[in-house]
TrEMBL record:
Its EC number is 2.4.1.18. It comes from Citrus sinensis. One of its GO terms (biological process) is glycogen biosynthetic process. Pathway: Glycan biosynthesis. InterPro entries: Branching_enzy, GH, GH13_cat_dom, Glyco_hydro_13_N, Ig-like_fold, Ig_E-set. Belongs to the glycosyl hydrolase 13 family. GlgB subfamily. CDD domains: AmyAc_bac_euk_BE (cd11321), E_set_GBE_euk_N (cd02854). This is 1,4-alpha-glucan branching enzyme. It holds the Pfam family Alpha-amylase. Keywords: Glycosyltransferase, Transferase. Residues 57-76, 111-135 are annotated as: Disordered. It comes from the Eukaryota. Transmembrane segments: none annotated.
Length: 711
């Protein structure tokens, strides 16, 4: 590591020499015209809310029956739509080469050799199937027939979106490659930078390369709100922006002058002693780029997932690195018998204590743990060990950080998000995406594909899906299983259509990838393929199991009812696979208690050494800790998950370093003096042969290997 311009960088900026010419494989310029049409894109009421009357496109009546009549026929939603948020789209084709803006063909992140093969894979074995009839869900679950009006409308909106993407963008495969068009694009002749910011009045690119002069590199805007600038190579052929240098976009917005990190930035870093982050132009020379050595493992019949957080994976009170996790933690996961690791907090987040869920830079891996190439090395090592690597991806909301993130990016409240109260999550204090926006769809679909394509992740755990699917976000709502709770005015159809599209893209282009959704509501059709009318996830997190165990742990032993336990474990929808877990990271956070702590409490501090007498509480706690896991794995679902350290009953809780704060309501919340003491994993306890933790870890290991052998 070296320091340049006050920032810790992966290496000294190098001169870049591009390889042989390469292009977009024949991308043609195609405009999405904002001319007259039957209706506007945003006017289609993909979201049906209880607080307002919503008319289907084309209906002029205020009569509620008009809504019903329109919704019954999906054909009514298959009209042409006007794409208000469109941009000049470069349609991906395989038969011609066209230069863009006469600056030479655009390369894909400086990589030349893989482009042709990628396109061929997409049109061959890697292809997104066309929408099906979407009617099989009624055969799978006849109870859905009572809500056919809503479900057919939902599928009609999905089919219409597919048609529009095919028409205006050349298909979902091309639409999901927005990272080849937006952000910084390297070509033989220079660097093109594009940014969608329709609210900005003016924009310029600033950074170390031009001494942060806002008048040096002025950008131009097209009629669709996309700002662009081309920077030619230096006279000696070196790139105009050195690798590792800081960059931002300077904008005059309705909210004033602001400097923002580019939305599609691939790396961002917080300088020592500074609060704001800086975008980093990350484009190392070819010889320094990490090259994957090992193939991705095949998807196993049953997943055994080890949920992990790289930053807190050290036994020391520090932020751990990708390299240390690769060398120390991955072999441990393999020895324990798990076949997949699910990594939290991958996307860059300015606030460490958010556990990675308040994302500021969606395309950038967290710089606290290392560089993008360090993360690639970690994933490659996991593949060498035969481990799938799943990413905990956050598309349900975004940080409300105005300095570092997407919030108020172009100075307007409704840029990437819904405006007003609908765009704000009052419990999470974060912003909510507008899934009905064309450019938001491009951004999120491309983001999911970026992590699969560039970093070779093997799939995702989508966070906060319940919040996405309902306009009430699941807050202060008790789901009873009544189907009207899932298919009514509170359903955000925009968001459900996005989930269908992203699952379509994942399974079409990456057939071995795994898609898991975190849904607490029990939404029917959640894990049914999209072509059959479902949302398209492979698994849902069976969150009711963990809640059941906590409920029982608060009761007397004689009040534990085996029938109720078995019912909770086996209560899942036919043909919909579940990830079972007794506890995840949620139960380990400060303010909650792990199962081990519920069972053994303070006795864990004094009676876990083998050379001391045990106590009845310790004996009971260890026995139940083992049995709870065994019952959960045996009955709870088609996959199993454990949060790191809980396999041996990790003592205490997780508390991220934080200072004192005062909430908007005036309540004072004391901090922990920014201590890392409770933000680590004491793997040494599970390895110590003189502690009872070792026996709990060995039981979990035996359980994983038993499942591997017998299924």
């Amino acid at each position: 590591m070296v320091y340049a311009s006050g920032i810790r960088l992966p290496c000294v900026p190098h001169l870049y020499k591009s390889s042989a010419p390469s292009g977009f494989n024949g991308d043609r310029r195609r405009k999405i015209f904002a001319g007259k049409s039957s209706k506007e894109f945003d006017a289609s009421p993909l979201i049906i809310t209880a607080s307002e009357k919503v008319l289907v496109p084309g209906s002029q009546s205020d009569d509620p029956s008009a809504v019903t009549d329109q919704l019954e026929t999906p054909e009514t939603v298959s009209e042409d739509i006007e794409v208000r948020n469109g941009i000049e789209s470069l349609q991906m084709e395989d038969n011609e080469n066209v230069e863009i803006e006469d600056h030479g063909p655009v390369t894909l992140q400086g990589k030349v050799s893989s482009e042709k093969s990628e396109v061929k894979r997409e049109v061959g074995p890697r292809s997104i199937p066309p929408p099906g009839a979407g009617q099989n869900i009624y055969e799978i679950d006849p109870n859905l027939l009572g809500h056919r009006q809503h479900l057919d409308y939902r599928y009609g909106r999905y089919k219409q979106m597919c048609e529009d993407i095919d028409k205006y963008e050349g298909g979902l495969a091309a639409f999901s490659r927005g990272y080849e068009k937006f952000g910084f694009i390297r070509s033989d002749t220079g660097i093109t930078y594009r940014e969608w910011a329709p609210g900005a009045k003016s924009a310029s690119l600033i950074g170390d390369f031009n001494n942060w002069n806002p008048n040096a590199d002025i950008m131009t805007q097209n009629e669709f709100g996309v700002w662009e600038i081309f920077l030619p190579n230096n006279a000696d052929g070196s790139p105009p922006i050195p690798h590792g240098s800081r960059v931002k976009i300077h904008m005059d917005t309705p909210s004033g002058i602001k400097d923002s990190i580019p939305a599609w930035i691939k790396f961002s870093v917080q300088a020592p002693g500074e609060i704001p982050y800086n975008g980093i132009y990350y484009d190392p020379p070819e010889e320094e780029k990490y090259v994957f050595q090992h193939p991705q493992p095949k998807k196993p019949k049953s997943l055994r997932i080890y949920e992990a957080h790289v930053g807190m994976s050290s036994t020391e009170p520090i932020i751990n690195t990708y390299a240390n996790f690769r060398d120390d933690v991955l072999p441990r996961i393999k020895r324990l018998g798990y076949n997949a690791v699910q990594i939290m907090a991958v996307q860059e987040h300015s606030y460490y204590a958010s556990f990675g869920y308040h994302v500021t830079n969606f395309f950038a891996p967290s710089s606290r743990c290392g560089t993008p190439d360090d993360l690639k090395s970690l994933i490659d090592k996991a593949h060498e060990l035969g481990l799938l690597v799943l990413m905990d991806i956050v598309h349900s909301h975004a940080s409300n950080n105005v300095l570092d993130g997407l919030n108020m990016f172009d100075g307007t409240d409704g840029h990437y998000f819904h405006s007003g109260s609908r765009g704000y999550h009052w419990m999470w204090d974060s912003r909510l995406f507008n899934y009905g926006s064309w450019e938001v769809l491009r951004f999120l679909l491309s983001n999911a594909r970026w992590w699969l394509e560039e970093y070779k992740f093997d799939g995702f755990r989508f966070d906060g899906v319940t919040s996405m699917m309902y306009t009430h976000h699941g807050l202060q709502v008790a789901f009873t299983g009544n189907y009207s709770e899932y298919f009514g005015f509170a359903t955000d159809v925009d968001a459900v259509v996005y989930l269908m599209l992203v699952n379509d893209m994942i399974h079409g282009l990456y057939p071995e990838a795994v898609s898991i959704g975190e849904d607490v509501s029990g939404m029917p059709t959640f894990c049914i393929p999209v072509q059959d009318g479902g949302v398209g996830f492979d698994y849902r997190l069976q969150m009711a199991i963990a809640d059941k165990w906590i409920e029982l742990l608060k009761k007397r032993d004689e009040d534990w009812k085996m029938g109720a336990i078995v019912h909770t474990m086996t209560n899942r929808r036919w043909l919909e696979k579940c990830v079972a877990y007794a506890e995840s990271h949620d139960q380990a956070l400060v303010g909650d208690k792990t199962i081990a702590f519920w069972l053994m409490d303070k006795d864990m501090y004094d009676f876990m050494a083998l050379d001391r007498p045990s106590t009845p509480r310790i004996d009971r706690g260890i026995a139940l800790h083992k049995m709870i896991r065994l019952v959960t794995m045996g009955l709870g679902g088609e996959a199993y998950l454990n949060f790191m350290g809980n396999e041996f009953g990790h003592p205490e809780w997780i508390d991220f370093p934080r200072g004192d704060q005062r909430l908007p309501n005036g309540q004072f919340v004391p901090g922990n003096n920014f201590s890392y003491d409770k933000c680590r994993r004491r793997f040494d306890l599970g390895d110590a042969d003189y502690l009872r933790y070792r026996g709990m870890q060995e039981f979990d290991r035996a359980m994983q290997h038993l499942e591997e052998k017998y299924g």
